[in-house]
Design a protein that fits this description.
Keywords: Cytoplasm, Nucleus, tRNA processing. Pathway: tRNA modification; 5-methoxycarbonylmethyl-2-thiouridine-tRNA biosynthesis. This is Elongator complex protein 1. GO terms for molecular function: tRNA binding. This protein is of the alpha+beta class. The chain is 34% helix and 25% strand. The chain has 36 helices and 53 strands. The strands form 14 sheets. The chain has a four-stranded antiparallel sheet, with no helix packed on it. It has a four-stranded antiparallel sheet with strand order 2-3-4-5, with no helix packed on it. Strands 6-7-8-9 form a four-stranded antiparallel sheet, with no helix packed on it. Strand 36 and strand 37 form a beta hairpin. Helix 8 runs parallel beside helix 10, helix 19 runs antiparallel to helix 20 and helix 22 packs antiparallel against helix 23.
């Protein structure tokens, strides 16, 4: 079964160091002999230890033995302790541990029952045992130098010899390009080909080593070749088939380990002048190496071990020669690789005591940075490391943004100062050389001194470095070492190794100042200089506050403002103190990418984070970099911000390359240094940091710093004004003085826009007090341009001449004429002095700002031909294009000349003004211009009413108004200019009856024509439902009475109240209304009855026609009858149709209606019935209802309205029956011909019928297919 392992990708090495989080040492376990093999249970984390006598399951966290079984009592090992366990493996699926002995037994140890079971035995003995990563296969090497492969149920698959003459299935193809002896061998010369192969080292135990690839498809075996005595590596596949054999490598040693997530096999090789860790590919060829920091014969490599995510390689070494005390030293080194450079990150020195020397080393299968060590004296030590970036705190601008990278292979610290340069690893700004490998580095958290660092080496020495070199310094180190649950702080002169050669300082040991008891194991500590707070994190995630500056240092629980105790849910590998909404909070990032603020989870996809001043910067696994301000949001707001995807103009979010991590942020700057997965560095200016810094500079009136940053980072210059318009306008002179450069001022002016960037592109942060206060009633661009122009003119018009031109041109309506005039004045009166420009330079600059054609036309609009020539000469225009035109203009009269120029420039209003001054001979041209450009109002203002041209313009304007459906205004114009006949027609057309009557009486009209006019106007007013006006008009001017109920009522009321005869209302008017109600009700009932009768008859006619059609289809001669009936039908009306074909459309419609007879049995009775049904109700009761309501006949009004509504509902319900769907289409298809048909219409209808007949046929064929 596949073990439940989680592999995570981390950027190995690079600009991060390994920091020891905790080390758990347990000495409670004791036993006879010494441990020989070690394994870790993946599910419980307990240790499985096999010794010369027994196998034990031990929990180092509790110090308890979980289970134990004797191997000697069962006879698997001899009782004298001479036996050897050659392999041990935890089998999670079987809940057992499998071990192999040198005697040949394979034993299963049941972890639940503590029973031992021998599952197999090899007579020749076993030399090693190795299980595949998925625990499905096991490989055993025997004393006869064979390989036995079995399943997890210990069923044999194959047995082959270790030493094979064949290369394997992956044998190289040779093309015969010569032998090895004739090939190039580098500096060693051809003697390298004849060099004798070196046998294995004397200390080599000559046992085979087996290692599996991470996916379990291949395994490698390193064994001593019987012929040469040297080790060779062979690679086998899962079926036990040899794949490849390594080339002969002199000095190859016994250590062997396959990189879990790669194709490289690690081993060690002893060269004549160095000792290296080498890497081989699966085809047996070497692929890279690195040199161990020891001399040639100083150490021997006992084993190599990769952690489960392939980021760290552990090298277990031991001195080859004993010292004076006849004891050897033991080391464990942790190496990482980045940018093809190997870094020694941690060096553990176990001393010369043989009882403290490790005998078993094993990486934890679940936690990639946890390693377990068991010493000869049965002491177990568990080391937990975490990745960390050692950077300077960045408290002020003197901080150089230092990042220190440990490179213990050469006892160096690589320091890069990112404020000054960005140097990718393994290069650096400078190196610090020490005498021993470095295990930890830290920077001083104190203003003005943050560039100082301290280094802890593997021999326990602390070196302090400063910018001026190394010196003996008395410093206070808050926490020196964590020992179990005790913390110690020191205060003493510390030994330093001077960078310069003049140093002879002797080391001084530190002394402990105080000791503080902590209830738990401290795994991290963080200090905030601003608040002086020191926070501790325990291994289970609990948070403590260290009161270290008190007379009696103590530790207390971490509490929030409400007094509640705050802890992390799980342990975090990186912590940082910050202030969120004024409350101090501890942030923590776990190795599973969860970011916590106390016990609140902020996000679950965080790859790195950094607190910089008031900002929290994070990178996520969704390839974004977020920069959030901590002063404004609460923890919930921060949580919501991290969960959101960000808007279009969200300044807090930036997309970055996949796998990017934060290295550092340059203090008091906008630069963020990111490192990519492949190791290269990138500098980004995060928008949130940039805008925050810009706002600070603008608040402090540091316009130059803000401008330079915005220019470099392409921030919209409008922010300088939009941030605080009032302050900017008050400090314009300061702004101009700081920028000083004409180019910078011009750049600012050319980027001005009406858009408020603080509400669109760069929204203000929440809680910002500064609000935009634009000048009311004026446009922003005009305000800024005018303010800058006036200030520059007062400071020095000659110096800022180009910027003044820019201010004119950039306005909402460009003032090109003014700019050109200033250039012309400069040409006439050249300025002198420093910084002055010539007219040619100014004109050239204008041509850069404005299109040459636009500038030429505007110069032409000044009517200054010298200026026009000056612009034309500087442009790329051909003189043949403009000289004839200019010469023609010069020959014209001044007013007509300006008219011609304005018309050319399409400035028609100005052209009309100049043309009106040219005399009467040009009036037709002016009238034509007015008509074309619709300049009627301007023309009437230019010509006085006493001139004859005014009447012509008025008539033309009136004609235009009539065309625009404004006849009443046209009538007023005509009346004013004395055209009474035309005015009367206009008023009559617009139903302006009062004006029409006045004009008619002014003309004057004869009485009969006046009455006729009144009747026409009354009819129009009635159509517009202006009944009272129509009644008044008829009564006073036409002397007639209307038949309309409403008109009668209005007229009656008008007469009644005019002559003060209210009694007529009761005697005449109301009885007449009641009589009208009865007549209207009877009419509606008759119409409803007629509709019902026609509807019933239509159904009968349609049924008869359908029955006749079906009967005719059943007749054998149906087709003949159909054709004959068509001929008869067509000939029946052919003569009558021909007689009326030439009639008018009105008469034609009348003739069509004659054919629609309601006589029963007529050929077109159904169509006549449909027509009659459509014309049933053509009356309206609206006027009668209004009159009834007026005189409080509510019941009568309600009755007639109900009757009318019932009739309408009955007719609406009958619509689908009378006019069914498709009836119109079918009628159109049947009646192809007729008196109104043409050849084209007949052909079009015929083609439409053909297409509709083809569609059903095509669909039937598709169904059959």
């Amino acid at each position: 079964m596949m073990s439940n392992k989680i592999y995570r990708k981390y950027s190995t090495g690079k600009m991060r160091n390994l920091k020891l989080l905790k080390s758990l040492q347990s000495s409670e376990l004791q036993g006879p002999g010494s441990p020989q093999c070690l394994a870790v249970r993946a599910d419980t984390g307990s240790l499985l230890i096999a010794s010369h006598y027994s196998i034990t399951e031990y929990d180092p966290r509790t110090g308890q033995v979980v289970s134990e079984a004797s191997l000697t009592a069962e006879g698997f090992l001899p009782e004298d302790g001479s036996g050897t366990v050659v392999g041990l493996q935890d089998l999670a699926e079987l809940e057992s541990a499998c071990l192999a002995t040198a005697g040949g037994d394979v034993v299963l140890f049941n972890l639940n029952t503590c029973q031992l079971e021998c599952v197999g035995s090899v007579d020749s003995g076993l030399t090693s045992m190795s299980w595949s990563p998925d625990e499905e296969l096991v490989v055993l090497t025997t004393g006869q130098e064979t390989i036995i492969m079995m399943t997890k149920d210990f069923e044999p698959i194959t047995e082959v010899g270790i030493h094979q003459d064949d290369f394997g299935e992956g044998k190289f193809i040779t093309v015969g390009w010569g032998k090895k002896e004739t090939q190039f061998h580098g500096s060693e010369g051809k003697q390298a080909a004849q060099r004798r192969i070196q046998s294995a080292a004397a200390w080599d135990d000559r046992r085979p080593r087996v290692t599996w690839r991470g996916d379990g498809q291949l395994f490698a075996v390193s064994a001593v070749c019987p012929q040469t005595g040297a080790r060779k590596v062979r690679v086998w596949n899962r079926e036990g088939v040899l794949q490849s054999t390594s080339e002969t490598i002199n000095g190859l040693e016994q250590a062997l380990c396959w990189k879990p997530s790669g194709s490289l096999i690690a081993s060690t090789q002893r060269h004549p002048n160095k000792h290296s860790v080498v890497f081989m590919e699966k085809n047996g060829l070497l692929h890279g190496d690195f040199t161990l920091p020891f001399s040639k014969d100083q150490v021997k490599v006992k084993d190599l071990l990769w952690n489960n995510d392939s980021t760290v390689l552990a090298v277990w070494l031991e001195d080859m020669t004993a010292g004076e005390d006849k004891k050897v030293n033991t080391y464990i080194q942790l190496w990482t690789m980045g940018n093809y450079h190997w870094y020694l990150k941690q060096s553990l020195d176990f001393g010369r005591d043989s009882q403290k020397a490790p005998v078993c080393v094993y990486w934890d299968p679940q936690h990639s940075l946890t390693v377990h060590v068991v010493t000869r004296s049965w002491t177990s030590i568990t080391y937990d490391w975490g990745w960390t970036t050692e950077r300077s705190p960045g408290l002020d601008a003197t901080d150089k943004a230092n990042v220190a990278v440990i490179d213990g292979g050469e006892n160096k610290i690589l320091v890069t100062t990112f404020r000054q340069c960005v140097v990718p690893p393994p290069m650096c700004a400078f190196e610090l050389q020490l005498s021993s490998p470095v295990n930890q580095v830290t920077f001083l958290c104190q203003p003005q001194r943050t560039n100082q660092l301290a280094a802890l080496t593997s021999d326990g020495q602390i070196s302090v470095y400063s910018q001026g070199g190394l010196y003996i310094v008395s410093i206070k180190i808050a926490i020196l070492r964590i020992n179990g649950n005790k913390m110690k702080s020191v205060e003493s002169p510390i030994s330093c190794h001077k960078l310069s050669r003049a140093s002879g300082l002797s080391p001084v040991l530190p002394c402990f100042r105080s000791e503080i008891e902590v209830d738990g194991v401290v795994v991290s500590m963080v200090h905030c200089f601003q608040s002086g707070t020191v926070a501790l994190q325990l291994e289970d995630g609990q948070i403590r506050k260290l009161l270290w500056d008190h007379p009696e240092p103590s530790v207390e629980d971490w509490r929030d403002s409400s007094g509640c105790c705050i802890n992390f849910p799980v342990s975090c590998v990186q912590t940082a103190l910050c202030s969120i909404s004024g409350e101090e909070c501890l942030l923590g990032l776990t190795d599973r990418s969860h970011l916590y603020a106390g016990e609140t989870e902020l996000a679950s996809n965080i790859s790195s984070f950094l607190v910089c001043n008031d900002f929290l910067l994070i990178t996520t696994h969704s390839h974004t970099c977020r920069c959030l301000q901590l002063s404004t949001p609460s923890i919930k707001g921060l949580q919501a911000a991290l969960a959101s995807d960000g808007g279009q103009n969200d300044e807090t979010l930036r997309r970055v390359e996949r796998g990017s991590r934060i290295v550092t942020v340059v203090p008091q700057d906008t630069r963020v240094i990111l490192q990519m997965p492949r190791g290269n560095l990138e500098t980004v200016h995060h928008r949130a940091l940039v805008l925050a810094q810009l706002r600070k500079w603008l608040d402090r009136l540091r316009f130059r710093d803000a401008f330079e940053c915005m220019k470099k980072l392409r921030i919209n210059m409008n922010l300088i004004y939009d941030h605080n318009p009032k302050v900017f306008l008050e400090n314009i002179e300061n702004f101009i003085t700081q920028l000083s450069s004409i180019n910078h001022i011009n750049l600012f002016l050319t980027e001005l826009k009406e858009e408020d960037t603080t509400s669109s592109m760069y929204p203000r942060p929440d809680g910002s007090l500064v609000q935009t206060q634009h000048v009311s009633g004026q446009k922003k661009v005009d305000v800024v341009c005018d303010a800058l122009r006036s200030t520059m003119e007062s400071m020095g018009p000659n110096k800022f001449f180009l910027s003044i031109l820019t201010a004119h041109v950039k306005k909402t309506v460009p003032e090109l004429e003014i700019a050109l005039q200033k250039v012309h004045e400069l040409r006439v009166n050249p300025s002198e002095g420093p910084g002055a420009v010539s007219a040619e330079e100014a004109l050239k600059y204008l041509l850069f700002l404005v299109n040459v054609n636009d500038l030429y036309e505007h110069s032409l609009g000044t009517y200054d031909f010298d200026l026009v020539l000056m612009v034309a000469e500087k442009s790329q225009k051909d003189p043949k294009e403009y000289l004839p035109f200019l010469n023609m203009l010069k020959s014209l009269e001044p007013n007509y000349q300006r008219y011609t120029i304005d018309k050319h420039l399409k400035r028609y209003r100005k052209a009309l003004q100049h043309l009106s001054k040219c005399g009467d001979e040009h009036f037709p041209e002016a009238l034509q211009l007015v008509k074309e450009q619709k300049l009627y109002s301007e023309a009437l203002r230019l010509y006085t009413a006493d001139r004859p041209h005014y009447k012509a313009l008025s008539c033309t304007y009136a004609q235009h108004l009539v065309e625009q459906q404004q006849a009443e205004q046209a009538g007023l114009l005509l009346w004013r200019c004395g055209e009474l006949t035309s005015a009367l027609q206009a008023f009559a057309g617009s139903s302006s009856w009062r004006n029409a009557i006045c004009v008619a009486q002014q003309m004057p009209l004869p009485p009969d024509q006046l009455a006729l006019l009144a009747r026409d106007l009354a009819e129009k007013l009635t159509e517009q439902r202006r009944y009272s006006e129509a009644a008044l008009l008829l009564d006073q001017y036409a002397k007639v009475r209307s038949s309309s109920v409403h008109l009668i009522c209005c007229l009656c009321l008008l007469q009644i109240y005019m002559h003060n005869r209210q009694d007529i209302t009761e005697t005449n008017l109301k009885p007449a209304l009641l009589e009208a109600v009865g007549a209207q009700t009877a009419f509606l009932e008759a119409q409803a009855a007629t509709f019902t009768r026609h509807r019933t008859r239509l159904a009968v006619v349609r049924e008869q026609k359908e029955k006749a059609r079906l009967d005719m289809l059943d007749c054998p001669d149906a087709e003949l009858y159909s054709e004959a009936s068509s001929v008869m039908t067509g000939s029946k009306y052919s003569q009558s149709n021909s007689r009326i074909s030439s009639r008018s459309s009105k008469n034609r419609r009348k003739a069509e209606r004659k054919k629609l007879s309601l006589k029963e049995g007529s050929p077109m009775e159904d169509r006549a019935l449909m027509y009659a049904l459509g014309e049933i109700i053509t009356t309206e009761v609206h006027s009668l209802l209004k009159a009834l309501v007026l005189f409080q006949f509510d019941k009568q009004a309600e009755k007639i309205q109900l009757t009318y509504e019932e009739a309408l509902q009955m007719m609406e319900a009958a619509v689908p029956e009378v006019w069914p769907e498709g009836l119109q289409n079918s009628q159109a298809q049947v009646n192809l011909t007729g008196p109104n048909s043409t050849a084209n219409s007949i052909m079009a209808s015929f083609q439409q019928q053909q297409q509709q007949q083809q569609r059903p046929a095509a669909s039937q064929q598709g169904e059959q297919c």
